[in-house]
Amino acid sequence: MLAQHAFGAASRYSKPGSYHTSHIRLPLLGCILISLADSVISSLGVLTYLECTPLLPGLTCLGPAGKLGKVSRRWGVDRGWSPASEGTRVGRRPFPTALTVIWLALSACTGLGTNPVPVGRGALTVFAAASLAEPFTEIADAFESQHPDVDVALNFAGSQQLVQQIVQGASADVFASANRAQMDVVVQEGRIAAAEVQDFAHNRLVVIIPTDNPGHLEDLRDLARPDLKVVVAAPEVPAGAYALALLDLAVASADLSPEYRVGVLSNVVSHEENVRAVLSKVALAEADAGIVYASDAAGEPRVRMIEIPQSMNPEIMYPIAVLLDAPEAGLALTFVEFVRSTSGAAILLRHGFTPAGE
Question: Residues 321, 305: one domain?
């Protein structure tokens, strides 16, 4: 009853991976009894985390996280804690022993040690280009399966947006960019060592149109036809820079005149902040055509692809690296190795990428 009263409705729990410090306000025996009683109650389920719980004014002691769950971050959004009953795959932790609980109680209630005690699962933060959303989500799941004590938090956005976050001091372990130019910015800012940057995948550009083809496009030439609505990524976005390079290569070929580039650009009605936004607008038939990566188009049933000749397709490489100040540097290196492994390459292939070296 003591523990049930202490861990009542007023208790609140912090997220996994947080730190706790404790201050002595009750007799040591009282804290031990509370922790032991709480251990018995919690043993009805599985303790995945021990977190900081305020009990009474001036008192901080240990409490359970309760049900099985984990914190997930996808598409740059913290989706919060998800219980296992909602289908979230989570790691498992062993049941706490009586000795463990007593030791934790002693540490919490006597303030032994001066350093905060880390609790919860290991966390690895990966910043990745928006075009990597599908393969990196699968890669993260496979990596977590091999490392049950690790949670991979994925932050997807345009490479230029991720660079801005990193340059402004955002904490990250791994950065995977859609081009070298954005990776070089982070290197120049001193947060990644140039020698540590490795290419891991290739991609190519395609023209996409809605499945019902309202603009009646048949080939690359048609992009310059008047009165079409074309969407591309902004010039500072890797996909946008590649689209401009495509037009330059097209004009340099013997097949298309310099007026072709002017005609295509005059049809552009929107510059998007990432390539997935271009894909979305065309899929929703808000534009007649767009220029995206082949890997993006392959997974979207609402669009059709118009292939671009190889001679006009710019070289597209995806580099990856561990940040110099990565909180989990060793784990980050293991993740990069996994991305470039045979298992990682197979996942990339399934999502329309060509692994580096192939």
Answer: no
216 and 308 inside one domain: yes
Q: What is the pLDDT of residues 274-332, one digit of tens each?
A: 999 999 999 999 999 999 999 999 989 999 999 999 999 999 999 999 999 999 999 99
Instruction: Judge contact between 247 and 315, C-beta under 8 A.
Output: no
Q: Which two tokens stand for residue 196?
A: 């540590």
- Report the number of distinct structural domains present in the chain: 3
**pTM for this predicted structure:** 0.65
Assigned domain for 6 exists: yes
Beta strands in the chain (DSSP E): 19-20, 50-54, 60-64, 69-74, 77-83, 117-118, 122-129, 150-157, 174-176, 198-203, 205-210, 230-233, 268-272, 289-293, 303-307, 316-322, 354-355
Domain carrying residue 36: 2-69+92-118
pLDDT for 37-52, tens place per residue?
445 444 434 333 333 3
φ and ψ of 196, to 5 deg:
-90, -5
Q: Are residues 114 and 14 in the same domain?
A: yes
Note whether 20 and 114 are same-domain residues. yes
Q: In terms of residues, how long is the chain?
A: 358
78 within some domain: no
Nearest CA to 234 out of 287, 272, 282 is that of 272
Look at the alpha carbons of 317, 269, 274, 235 in this order and tell me if their dihedral is positive or negative: positive
**Which are the contacts of 252, defined by CB distance < 8 A and separation ≥ 6?**
none
Instruction: Find where tokens 């230029």 sit.
Output: 160
Tell me: do 12 and 36 sit in the same domain: yes
Please report whether residue 84 resides in a domain: no
